[in-house]
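Researcher: I'm preparing a figure for a lab meeting and need a structural model of a single chain. I don't have an experimental structure, so a prediction will have to do for now. The sequence is pasted below. Please return the structure as tokens so I can convert it later.
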Amino acid sequence: MDALLPPSSLLSASTHSPSPLTPSLPTLLLFSSSWCPDCKPFLARLLTVLEDLHDASPSDKAVNVVYVSSDKDSAQCGEYVKAMPEYFHYVSFEDEEARSALKRRFRTCAGSEADSVGVKDRLRGIPNLVVL
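Model: Understood. Here is the structure written out token by token.
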């Protein structure tokens, strides 16, 4: 993940400070936003699946989850992050280049931001989950 994202841009959802991922676990990139009508139900379903994974292996976290925001501002992003479990991570809203680079790399973003983040030939909108 370090090759895709500077470690200083990866924040813990619980502490809002830089926090490394667990390297031995798969990583899920959650492309989403608070304003998207499909994103909140998608997050709820994802949380149910993750709870089931956790129940199967309660002593360990099953995956890393990184939220890549398409929110309009940092306040929206912050409110959405509050709804996420403490083990989630997110890309700092202030690091627009890191968020945009991930969106370009995976050709995934909200349609309204495709031009501004430089996503050509968008493959997926939001919500979208990429498994690394």
